[in-house]
């Protein structure tokens, strides 16, 4: 980066759209299932036929309030749905029902950790709105040049979370979006799937000289659907704007699209001002009124959120911040871990198994924690068997694989497969005798002082017993026999 460029800092604010996990849409009973054939989940309400009446989905409101409370927002006693008017082929009504000057909630914040210490990002507002449909651009020979519209998504419940322009780097933007996603998923109100579009993000970026208080003119980057695209698009855009300004040109306010293929952003349209949408209150819906009591009741149902859980794990279980971060990365994994520790109280050992073999097998089998054949109780039993010396750590790994495949208990596998550790002195002494008899020259060297050959003898016994011998006992027996 040139010296001139280093004089500028980036200012970033994100608008994040999250699809709520309600079974039906925001204002009608149509299903929200992903992946259905195009235009099979539509009705007169979401198609915007004249004369129909929208009816607000209560569950969507509860979900939206939970999110608002989780980012420390104040929930407004009264909020108002408004029509945002614009023409687009995926919006048959000609307007989107959203919330405008009286949103559901306002003035919250979120703590993020982008590797350089913690930092608070202000949340301007959380509001509810309906999604638009999806345009599909034909590719096959018969479809080339045609565009199609799928209205299944039209009317699906969204919340929009708008941040203050408090973010300064692409890494911070990614950390912020990750934290938001973790919370949404913990609350079980959004699946957080960016590829399927359940979580999308618009990035607003401007630059200004360090020390300048006034905001620069921003560009808005539309609908980024992966963390990597968000990071790359912001980095490209910061660079583009800085070069413009250094070259004596001006940034213009516009909406831009990121093209992952080229890594560049390009103009999509010059940005509309709010008055172009001619917002007005939706005449078919009453204002949304929530009481203090309803809000407080919901607050009580909030789960422990990831950031808090991570800190508690570090303290309560004396595990590293890294381990803690991995374990709380999903609520189900965190629960699995805690349930196991409850039954086998060695937090570090449990962490190693959960983060190691357990996560590996889940990944290899594309399984979620909830689909795991190994339960916390079963893992705890296995760990107790290692501790009691019934099986070696090495055998335990094989037993665990078998448990994961079959769902059987560790002791059943161990008994059935003859995998128990051999700790019987008489039996081991016989095997040791055999090894000594077969290796006279090593015995001679050992007796002449090359005692590090002990490892060799133990290894031979382990080989003969397929790893089942108790290695400590074996090494004692050998020392006694040769010493
Ligand atoms: P718009 O009406 O264009 O959507 P808003 O004022 O509603 O703009 O802000 C949208 C998002 O853009 C917010 O996240 C806000 O923090 C961010 N933002 C606003 N102004 C700037 C700016 N000059 N530079 C970077 N981000 C900005
Ligand atoms: Mg905007
Ligand atoms: Zn419908």
Structure characteristics:
three-stranded antiparallel beta sheet, Arc Repressor Mutant, subunit A, binds magnesium ion, 20% strand, 15 helices, 483 residues
Care to describe what's here?
The chain has 483 residues and is α+β, with helices and mostly antiparallel strands. The protein folds into three domains: 5-297, no CATH class; 306-417, no CATH class; 425-482, Arc Repressor Mutant, subunit A (Orthogonal Bundle), CATH 1.10.10.410. Helices cover 39% and strands 20% of the residues. It has 15 helices and 16 strands. The chain has helices at 58-70, 170-186, 227-246, 292-300, 306-317, 321-327, 331-343, 347-364, 376-387, 393-406, 410-416, 425-438, 440-447, 454-464, 471-482, and strands at residues 8-19, 74-75, 78-79, 81-85, 95-99, 105-113, 118-130, 134-137, 147-150, 157-163, 199-209, 219-224, 254-259, 264-270, 280-281, 288-289. The strands form four sheets. The protein has a nine-stranded mixed β-sheet with strand order 2-6-7-10-1-11-12-13-14. β12 (219-224), α3 (227-246) and β13 form a beta-alpha-beta unit. α7 (331-343) crosses α9 (376-387) and α9 (376-387) runs antiparallel to α10 (393-406). It is elongated. Residues 25, 28, 30, 42-43, 45-46, 155 line the site of zinc ion.
């Amino acid at each position: 980066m040139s010296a001139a460029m280093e004089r500028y800092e980036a200012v970033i604010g994100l608008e994040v759209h999250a699809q709520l996990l309600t079974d039906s849409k925001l204002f009608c009973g149509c299903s929200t299932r992903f992946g259905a054939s195009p235009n099979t989940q539509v009705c007169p309400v979401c198609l915007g036929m004249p004369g129909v009446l929208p009816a607000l989905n209560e569950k969507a409101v509860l979900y939206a309030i939970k999110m608002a409370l989780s980012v420390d927002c104040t929930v407004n006693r009264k909020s108002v749905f408004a029509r945002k008017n614009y023409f687009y082929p995926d919006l048959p009504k000609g307007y989107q029902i959203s919330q405008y000057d009286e949103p559901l909630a306002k003035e919250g914040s979120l703590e993020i950790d982008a590797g350089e210490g913690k930092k608070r990002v202000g949340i301007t507002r959380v509001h509810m709105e309906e999604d638009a449909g999806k345009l599909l651009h034909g590719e096959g020979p018969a479809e080339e040049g045609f565009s199609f519209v799928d209205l299944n998504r039209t009317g699906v419940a969204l919340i929009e979370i708008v941040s203050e322009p408090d973010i300064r780097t692409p890494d911070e933007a990614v950390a912020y979006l990750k934290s938001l996603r973790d919370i949404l998923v913990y609350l079980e109100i959004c699946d957080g799937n960016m590829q399927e579009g359940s979580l999308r993000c618009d990035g607003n970026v401007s630059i200004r000289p360090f020390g300048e208080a006034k905001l620069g003119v921003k560009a808005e980057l539309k609908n980024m659907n992966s963390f990597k695209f968000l990071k790359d698009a912001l980095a490209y855009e910061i660079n583009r704007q800085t070069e413009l300004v250094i070259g004596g040109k001006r940034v213009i306010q516009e909406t831009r699209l990121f093209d992952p293929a080229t890594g560049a952003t390009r103009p999509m349209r010059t940005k509309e001002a709010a008055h172009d949408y001619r917002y007005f209150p939706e005449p078919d819906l009453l204002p949304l009124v929530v009481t203090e009591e309803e809000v407080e009741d919901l607050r009580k149902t909030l789960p422990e959120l990831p950031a808090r859980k991570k800190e508690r794990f570090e303290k309560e279980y004396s595990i590293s911040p890294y381990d803690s971060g991995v374990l709380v990365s999903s609520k189900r994994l965190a629960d699995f871990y805690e349930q196991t520790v409850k039954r086998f109280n060695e937090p570090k050992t449990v962490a190693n198994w959960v983060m190691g073999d357990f996560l590996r097998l889940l990944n290899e089998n594309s399984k979620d924690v909830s689909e795991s054949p190994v339960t916390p109780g079963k893992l705890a039993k296995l760990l107790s068997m290692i501790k009691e010396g019934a099986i070696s750590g090495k055998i335990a790994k094989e037993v665990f694989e078998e448990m994961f495949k079959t769902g059987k208990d560790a002791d059943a596998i161990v008994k059935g497969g003859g995998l128990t550790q051999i700790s019987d002195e008489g039996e081991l002494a016989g095997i040791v005798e055999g090894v000594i008899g077969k290796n006279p020259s090593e015995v001679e060297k050992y007796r002449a002082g090359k005692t590090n050959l002990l490892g060799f003898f133990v290894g031979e016994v382990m080989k003969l017993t397929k790893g089942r011998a108790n290695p400590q006992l074996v090494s004692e027996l050998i020392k006694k026999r040769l010493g």
